[in-house]
Amino acid sequence: MSHANERLFDHQLAREVKLRKSRAERDKRMPLKDAIAEFVQDGDSIVETGFAYVRGPMAAFWEIGRQRKKDLVGIFTPGGMNTAWHEFGGMEGCHVAYVGVEMRGLISPFRRGVQNGTLKVYSEWSHGGLALSLLAAEKGLNYVACKSMLGTDIMKTNPYIREAEDPFTGEPVCLVPAMYPDVAIIHVHHADKFGNGRIWGPAVNDTSICIAAHKVIVTCERIVDTLDIRTNPYQVIVPHYCVDAVCEVPYGAYPGDMPGMYYFDRRLQERVVRLEWKTPESTKEWYEKYILGTKDHFEMIQLIAEDEGMNVIDYLKKLEQLACDASFYGLGTWGIGGEREWKYEEVAKRAI
Amino acid sequence: MNEVQYTPRELLACVAARLISDGESVFVGTGLPLVGALLAHKLHAPNMMAIYECGAVDPEPRVLPWSVACSWTYHKAPTILSMTSVFGHSRAGYADVGFLGGAQIDMYGNINATCIGDYDNPKVRLTGSGGANDIASLCGKVIFMGLHLPERFPEKCDYITTPGFLDGPGARERAGLVGGGPWRVISHLGVMGFDEETCRMKLISYHPGVTPDVVQQFTGFELIIPDDVTETPKPTEEELRVLREEVDPNQLFVF
What is the rounded average pLDDT of the residues A10-16? Predict the structure, then answer.
């Protein structure tokens, strides 16, 4: 088996993989556990989607931790809390544009890993550079010539990009090759059973990622009828033919932000990042209690809610409504409702 | 005497806000830049437009976004784009000011956000570039905000994540960078700019209670101190009122 980095920029391999995929509209729904077990293999490169802590597939990331996947290679644009994996053998290296949670701080497991050499950094990027690398894969380009990263140490610490002379103008440009990660997990608001995924809010890089990646798992807040998608296709960022599995995971971005639905659990993120993960010992304690010690995402939310002594989900929904109430945008079926209403109510009730 | 009372961070936010003109588009980084941009919008730049790297453009700034990608960054935004789009629009010329932070800034305005110490064997590993490199490569001009300590203002950064004037006059052009590069540095001791000939950092104004000597002592390289340096005007009551009551009433960033 080749190392993930050998596959990462191989456009011929990426094409072969996609030629083999079925285009048929199949019912791809499955439990999250099965999807992770089947489509995330040890040693895969896995790309962050959404904006790490905004519409990130957190439930799926925790599940990867629970299943003790080994030696993944992370692609962080930006990277969030799943960098804790590496202290438990889950991640051996990474390609970094950004890892952190802004002013909430650095993520200690990542910092420790790089400082003591247990987590390799294979390449440095800027957000724009890495985004263009994924965009090139989606647009069918071998590489793009851009004006980012030039003149800086990023050029020296990234073996994949290079400076060249623009053949048209003669000026220096930075060449960024197309990147094809092994696996991507994309969390969306709505998906149909075939994998067409619809979001509200910024796509960030997800339209590129779903075409670039070899394997795509879609997790969604709610499964909707395919007619719902086909009569309103404008915000669909993932087309069904690139998708391998669809999992309905309400609150799947928790403790991150899900635009129009629920806000960050700010207090939890700050506590975890600043305190609980400060040392390897405390990280291990947290990880064993909340990730390995729970059977699924909902049990984890419930455990956190009990610790906080409040209904975290209801609280985050109210916060989010202030910023962008989905119904405000006249998006009709966007609001939480319909046949799956009970599921949200159920989770919210359990989260007291 | 009835002196206006304020904290160092409040002064920073007010100074940052004053540097933004009405009608400018501002690429906003996380933390204090968010506060400065929102304060400017509420005070003297109602037509200012914010851009965020997640793909949000021109939201109605009502409340401080808690992150550069959270839902407040696209609150009533006219359109929501993607990451490659907003950086592409910056290259095209639609971003006037970039607003950044970082761990180190050197005398040519190069910024380090990657590591302290040797890259291969870092003493402290930091976050990495994020959008900072792209913002400084592509935007019209860049404002840096940070704490003023000798190790944070070294002669040379341990790692250049984000380009300033690189190694001096003409270097940006030789490297092929399009944006104008660093314009202002706001620290808790003063406001700095860059000398047009040498591209080296120079003092523009020192904050109340500080002297140019103190600024120099806390700088790891020789700062150009022109004769016409002045004291930074104190925050006005109106600035402080808007900052405390409307921009950051919960003291998330400014305390």
Answer: 97
- Is-contact A264 A316, C-beta < 8 A? yes
Asked if A76 and B128 come within 8 Å (Cβ–Cβ), the reply is yes
Residues of chain A contacting residue B163, judged by C-beta atoms under 8 Å apart:
150-152
- What's the pLDDT score for residue A345? 56
SS3 A258: strand
Domains by residue range for chain B, with CATH: 8-246 (3.40.1080.10)
Q: Is A109 on the interface with B (CB under 8 A)?
A: no
Please name the member of B130, B132, B177 whose beta carbon is closest to the beta carbon of A151.
Answer: B177
- Interchain CB distance below 8 Å, B129 and A99: no
> Pseudo-torsion of CA A256, A335, A250, A276, nearest 10°?
20
Task: Say whether B69 and A127 touch across the interface (CB within 8 A).
Answer: no
The whole-number pLDDT of residue A341 equals 45
**Does any CB of chain A come closer than 8 Å to the CB of residue B244?**
no
Tell me the sheet residues that pair with A258: A262
Contact A103, A53 (CB under 8 A): no
Two structure tokens written together for A106: 């650095």
Task: Confirm or reject contact between A262 and chain B (CB < 8 A).
Answer: no
Can you give the pLDDT at residue A338?
A: 37
Contact A48, A75 (CB under 8 A): yes
Chain centroid to Cα A153, Å, comes to 27
Summary count for chain B: helices (H), strands (E): 7, 14
Q: Domains in chain A, ordered, with CATH?
A: 1-142+178-352 (3.40.1080.10)
DSSP character for A264? -
Residue of chain B whose Cα is closest to the Cα of A201: B80
pLDDT digits (tens, 9 = 90+) for A197-244: 999 889 999 999 999 999 999 999 888 889 888 888 888 999 999 999
- pLDDT recorded at residue A33: 96
Q: Is it the case that residue A3 has pLDDT exceeding 70? A: yes
Q: Between residues 56 and 115 of chain B, which touch chain A (CB distance below 8 Å)?
A: 56, 63, 66-72, 74-75, 80-84, 87, 91, 110, 114
CB-based contact, B20 to chain A, within 8 Å: no
Element (H, E) at B162: none
- Prior bond of A280 cis (ω within 30°): no
* Percentage with pLDDT > 70 across chain A: 92
Mutate to test the interface with A, among B52, B71, B112 (most CBs of A within 10 A): B71
Q: Which residues of chain B have pLDDT under 50?
A: 1
Q: Which residues of chain A have a CB within 8 Å of the CB of B55? A: 202-204
CA separation for the pair A326, B51 (Å, rounded): 22
ipTM of the complex as predicted: 0.94
Model pLDDT, residue B176: 96
Secondary structure class of A3 (helix, strand, coil): coil
pLDDT digits (tens, 9 = 90+) for A283-339: 999 999 999 999 999 899 889 888 888 788 888 877 877 776 554 444 444 444 333
The catalytic residues of B are 53
SS3 for B19-77, per residue?
Answer: CCCCCCEEEECCCHHHHHHHHHHHHCCCCCEEECCCCEECCCCCCCCCCCCCHHHHCCC
Torsion sign, CA atoms B103, B106, B109, B114: negative
